[in-house]
Amino acid sequence: MTIASFAQVQAYQYKGEIIMIVITKPSITDERIAEIVAVIERNGGVQAHVSKGTDRTVIGIIGKAEPTLAEHLRQMKGVENVIKISKSYKLASRDFHPDDTVIDIKGVKIGGDNLVVMGGPCAVETPEQIDEIARLVKAAGGQVLRGGAFKPRTGPYSFQGVGVEGLVMMAEAGKKHGLLTITEVMTPEYVDVCAEYADILQVGTRNMQNFDLLRKLGTIQTPVLLKRGFSATYDEFLNAAEYILAGGNPNVMLCERGIRTFETYTRNTLDLAAIPVLQSLSHLPVISDPSHGTGRRELVEPMAKASVAAGANGLIIEMHTDPDNSMTGDGVQSLFPDQFAKLLKELEQLAPLLGKRFDTDKAPAEAFKEWKI
Ligand code: PEP
Ligand code: MN
Q1: Is the CB of residue 121 less than 8 Å from the CB of residue 326?
Q2: The model's pTM
Q3: Pocket lining: 292 vs ligand 1, CB cutoff 6 Å
C-alpha cells in the first residue's frame, strides 16, 4: 500500500463509536437538551448526535467517554434513561432513532405510513423507450422511475448499460412526466455524476459490501436505496447501511431483493420476513423488490401485495413495453404496462386497509422545473 492510499484509508475511518444513548423525558426543553449536550461534549473527543422524535429526543454519544459519564447523565434533570448500545450498527438502529425515518424528496415521502412505487425497465435503452415507460409509470400512479444506466452484469460480455447518456435520458423522462428517478451506481468515481442526474442512487446486491462505494455515498446527501446482498444476513445488511449513515448521509432506504437459497425454480427467494424484522431493528424505510426477488413475471403481483401486507414502505418493480426484447435478461421478470397499472390500482385499494397512504399523484410537475440537465 502506498503512503497516499494508506492516508486515504485512515481518513475514511469512522472515528469512534456510539457507546450509549440518552433518552430524554417527553417534556424536555431545547435549552435543557443543549445543557446535556454541553456536559457530554465537556469530555474531550466525545460527540453528541441529537435525534428529535415526535415524542422524545434521543442523544447518541460517540467516542470514548469517562466511565462516570453514564451515571452523571442519569442523574441529570430531563433525562429518563441512559442505555449502552451493544449492536455493531448504531445509527441504523431503532434504539438510536425510535421514530421511522421519512425521506422527503421533492414532496414525495418515503417511509412511515407512506407507500411508494418505483417502476421502470431494468436498463435504460433509448430516449424513446425510457420516455414511453415513464409516461406509463406516471399514468399508473407510480412516483419514481427506475432504470439502470450502469448495469452490474454477471458476465463481462453481457450488455453493460448505456452509461452517462442513459442518466441524461432518464433525467429528461423523469422531468417531463413528473417522476423522481432512481439509478444504480457501481463505483465511487461515478457517484457525483449519478447524483447530478438522479434523485435516488441504488446500490446493487453485488455491491452491498463495496465499502469504498458506501463511504463515498456517506459524503453526499442524495438518498440511497441499498439492496441487500444476496447472501447477506440482516446484521451485515444493517452494518452496510451504517457505513453510509456514519459518513453523514442520513437518507438511506433498505431494499429486500431476494436471497440465494437451494431453490432454483425462482431466481431468488424473496425473504418477506426481512421486511418486519428490518423495521423492528431499524428506523430506515424498507422497500421490496419482487422482480429480482422472484425472477418470474407471474410472481411479481402476488409478492408485491404480500410485501405491502408485510409492511413494506415501497416497491421497486421492473416494467417494460417490450420485455421480450429487453437488453438485459430481466424481460422475463418485467411486467407489461397493463399488468403494472392493474397492480397499482389494486394497491390503491389495499393500502388503506393496511394503514398505508398511497398517494398516486404526489409528484407535482412543477417540482421538477429546476432540474439540472
Ligand atoms: C436491478 O435493479 O436491475 C438490479 C441489478 O438489481 P440487483 O442488484 O438486486 O440484482
Ligand atoms: Mn434488473
Answers
A1: yes
A2: 0.86
A3: yes
